[in-house]
Amino acid sequence: MGEYKTVDEAFKIAAQDRDFYNTSGGGVTISGGEPLLQWEFVRDFFKKCKDAGFHTALDTTAYCPWENMEQVLKHTDLILFDVKHMDPVKHEEKIGVSNELILENLDKASSMTKIWLRIPLIPGFNDSESNMHKTAELASRTRAERISLLPYHEWGKDKYSSLGKQYDYD
Q1: Which of 35, 84, 109, 124 has the fewest CB atoms within 10 Å distance of its CB?
Q2: Span 1-53, pLDDT tens digits
Q3: Residues in domain Radical SAM core (predicted)?
Q4: Are strands 55-60 and 78-82 parallel, antiparallel or unpaired?
Q5: CA–CA distance, 156 with 32 (Å, rounded to integer)
């Protein structure tokens, strides 16, 4: 269970690692859930981080209005961008929403900041040669600096069960 923090409280915690950021070249990463559901907090927090000289990274699916994301990206050095599937129909079947907004936001974001693509490889869903080719085209088009293929795991299986949902990837 998380804790509620103001921007100032969260920044005070992050600033405790200032020496580490300075010596390692690292910085602050916001992830979730989906951090852009709280885009105003992330924007204000990242602004404070940038004012202090910290590198900022956002781990997101980017399923949000572009106007919100754009405000956050003004203070973002790097996006860790989750890409589940390139086909909008297949994406909607399994994820619950089309990927059209997500891909539009990625295209726009690529002109504002560095992009790293992160692809969770899900057997029978997005591990086809065709999907990988389309993902490679996306990486090229958006000038992604890195592509990470994340191995499949079953960490969410128990959560699905507790919610009374079917887990499709046994």
Answers
A1: 124
A2: 678 999 999 999 999 999 999 889 889 999 988 999 999 999 999 999 999 99
A3: 1-170
A4: parallel
A5: 14
What span, in angstroms and rounded, lies between the C-alpha atoms of 38 and 17? Answer: 23
**Sign of torsion over alpha carbons 41, 101, 128, 125:** positive
Taking only the tens place, the pLDDT of each residue in 60-96 is 999 999 999 999 999 999 999 999 999 999 999 999 9
CB atoms within 10 A of CB 84: 18
| Residue 45 identity | F
All structural domains of the chain: 18-162 (3.20.20.70)
The dihedral sign for the CA sequence 34, 103, 143, 111 = negative
**Torsion on CA atoms 62, 135, 28, 7, rounded to nearest 10:** 0
* Among candidate residues 98, 1, 106, 6, the one with its CA nearest the CA of residue 58: 106
Place of tokens 């997101």: 60
Rounded average pLDDT over 151-168: 72
